Hints:
alpha+beta; four-stranded mixed beta sheet; 45% helix
Amino acid sequence: MASVKSFVWYSPQAFAEAGYEVPATWDELVALTNRIAADHPKGEVAPWCLGMADGGTTGWSMSDWLEESLLTTGGVGAYDAWADHDVALDSQPAVNALGTVDSLLMEKGHVPGGREGALSTTMEQAGQQLVDGSCLMMLASSSFETTRPPASPLPTSRGVAETARAAVRRRAAVPQRVAVPRPPGLTGPTALPALKRVLALRGAGGR
């Protein structure tokens, strides 16, 4: 079965106890992210789990975020031009879209350990953080169900536990786009350096 992108995995019980609702739009997603961060000013719980470490292909997981943001900020036309290589990988719409992702994920307290923490965290470790309750949402494909940590008690905001199988298996599509095609060659040897240049631009405050 093909892997479906654009799923956000979360704990329904943790959301219910904290009074969080599953967002249906990008603006609602941003608002929820900011609310979770504001509810945990000491950083003990972050809105997002983010794993970017993967040896020579470190950073590939951000391509999924970039796709979502590009569709949201630039529309289907901009996304298709980018995915079909009609424009440069680091074209201005793509850089702007990555800036939107940067604002969502890299603000203080939005991911465990901040930017450096994400760069040293693998997708598998990020999944464990979701199970541990140190972050509440994780963007991953449907195949995450086959690689997520084994069933174990999942802490919620009030310390009440439910199994990871019952909690993490529930997922919501945010934004409401499923089966978004992955741009061809995005994780290939020629595309990754360009993506890393875009990431470097964002890290230096470029636009």
